[in-house]
Specification:
0% strand; Four Helix Bundle (Hemerythrin (Met), subunit A); single chain; mainly alpha; disordered C terminus
């Protein structure tokens, strides 16, 4: 049901996006810090909604549909705002492009494989990718302005965030390739009706 706690946590990530956009658009130290806290809190719900759904046995098709959508909307909004507001360096733009393209690729693969009734499971490496990605974006949303406001101007926050974004982009390429190869194997294999439960 939509009102189950795991689904509410997933929906909260979508609801947080307009506020996140406003905070990033304001671009003053308190707003940047608030954007970092809001994004980080929303990112943490991604861990808890799945864990709660499993522990409470509230897993559902609705939750499986909403979860990746909420993640991609949140990440996409954060990346677009950072790029649009000039908060990434010229070099920081490239990992942002890689991450966005990978999200589109995986969404397309999932849609295709869903028609074949094949699940594309999340790998352990993909979870590491998500952790670095969310950490990088939260750090970049805070930026040097929030660090200065907190009297931590000696920390190169934006540089740290961009370094983490490059790591996330590298993991993104790796996991994206794994998912692509999995999709190709199913597409070039026997017809969906001929796939056994063991093959799936």
């Amino acid at each position: 049901m939509l009102t189950d706690l795991p689904n509410l946590l997933t929906l909260s990530r979508i609801v947080a996006i307009p506020l996140l956009v406003v905070l990033v658009a304001l671009h003053d130290p308190p707003a940047d810090l608030a954007a970092c806290v809001l994004f980080s809190t929303a990112a943490i719900t991604d861990y808890f909604d799945g864990r709660l759904a499993r522990s409470r046995r509230q897993q559902s098709d609705l939750g499986r549909m909403l979860d990746p959508i909420a993640d991609k909307l949140l990440v996409g909004a954060a990346l677009m705002m950072l790029v649009g507001r000039g908060r990434l360096s010229a070099w920081g733009l490239y990992p942002a492009i890689v991450i966005m393209l990978r999200e589109i690729l995986v969404s397309g693969l999932r849609e295709y494989l869903a028609a074949l009734r094949v699940l594309l499971p999340v790998t352990a490496l993909a979870k590491w990718k998500t952790g670095f990605q969310m950490g990088a974006l939260g750090t970049l949303l805070a930026g040097d302005s929030a660090a200065g406001w907190l009297h931590l101007s000696f920390l190169p926050v934006s540089a740290i965030g961009e370094a983490m974004l490059w790591v996330a982009a590298a993991l993104t390429l790796w996991t994206g390739w794994d998912y692509l190869m999995a999709g190709v194997r199913h597409a070039s294999g026997p017809p969906a009706a001929a796939l056994t439960k063991r093959q799936l």
